[in-house]
Amino acid sequence: MILYNVTVKVELPIAGTWLQWMREDHIPAVMATGMFLSSRMSHLLLQDESDGITYSIQYECSDLATLQKYQAQYAPQLQKEHADKFAPYFVAFRTVLEVLN
Fold it and tell me: What predicted TM-score, i.e. pTM, was given to this entire model?
């Protein structure tokens, strides 16, 4: 199992609008690609939030090949939509994790 983790720090003035857009538009669009089995969003706790709120969005997929297909076919456009709407009020980084049970 592969987890695709996107960590985003959003500046306070847009945090509410960003969170609503993620829940109503972006995450559903990512899931509609059919590449992921599930998703979840978390709020990082015990962080200094004076300059923004940090979230982690995790998407679960069955294997690395599926994630690579998503990254090649869908991610560029979805990331562009996010950047066009919210730049320069966020920073994001992505990590890929293999689930070990």
Answer: 0.93
Locate all alpha helices (DSSP H) within the chain, ordered by sequence: 15-21, 27-32, 64-73, 75-86
Closest CA to 29 of 88, 100, 85, 97: 85
Q: Which residues form the domain of 34?
A: 2-98
How distant, in Å, are the alpha carbons of 2, 36, 38, 50, 90 from that of 12?
A: 31, 29, 28, 8, 10
- Cα distance between residue 2 and residue 14, in whole Å: 30
Number of structural domains (the chain) is 1
Tokens linked to 101: 């049970």
pLDDT digits (tens, 9 = 90+) for 55-100: 999 999 999 999 999 999 999 999 999 999 999 999 999 999 999 9
Sheet of strand 53-61: strand arrangement: 38-43, 53-61, 2-10, 90-98
